Amino acid sequence: MSFTGTAQAAMDQLIILKKYGIDPSVFIWSHAMEEPKSKKILAIALMGAWVALDGIQNDMEYQISIDRLLQNLKSTRQLNHVLLSHDAGWYQPGKPNGGVFRPYADLFSSFSLLLLSEGFTREELDQMIVKNPAEAFAVRVRKIAK
Hints:
mainly alpha; globular; three-stranded parallel sheet; TIM Barrel
């Protein structure tokens, strides 16, 4: 799981893995939603890596932008490479009371409802929230087939 930021850094890491014969399915690109170009996000999913959209929060503008990205990944049949989470909680040393606490429910409340209203099925949500993480974090050797 790599907190790379941009697609270029994720791509560089995938090139290194490939050089050593390691399948891209070992790689989870965290905070992929920070990449401004959805084509680059799609390219990494098409390589077989995991694309983690892990900053879901109760902000409608933000949720709509993630929905658009997911619509693109859905239309290209890449939801099987998507991980969703809220990356919530937070503790900021030095801030009063540890800073602003983000609740752990936004993914399961407002965001899931938005996706369902935009044509996603419960099975697709289950895939991104339950099935894909189980597969992504499964412990096993993953080498590129020769």
